[in-house]
TrEMBL record:
Keywords: Membrane, Transmembrane, Transmembrane helix. The keyword Transmembrane helix applies. It comes from Lentzea rhizosphaerae. This is MFS transporter. It is found in: Cell membrane.
Amino acid sequence: MVVALGVAWILDGLEITVAGAIADTLTKPETLRLSSTAVGLLATVYLIGEVVGALFFGHLSDKLGRRNLFMLTLAVYLVGSGLTAFTLGNGAGWLGAH
């Protein structure tokens, strides 16, 4: 369990690093051409989601057990990451691209 938790933390840190590193690239014309405001909004929503998720699942782990909730959060992450494979187009329309 400790090894799985360590791997999850490493992957989460890597995901945050990659997201931060590509933020500037998302505003370029040859990529999604997002406005700086849209990139900032995405970063804000990402952070709010992490905080709310940590509070929600932290509270549930006290009720249902940390091991059970750790497995559940891994499943939620797996499903959410897998769903990104089904995105259509470049997704820029609702993000405020020019």
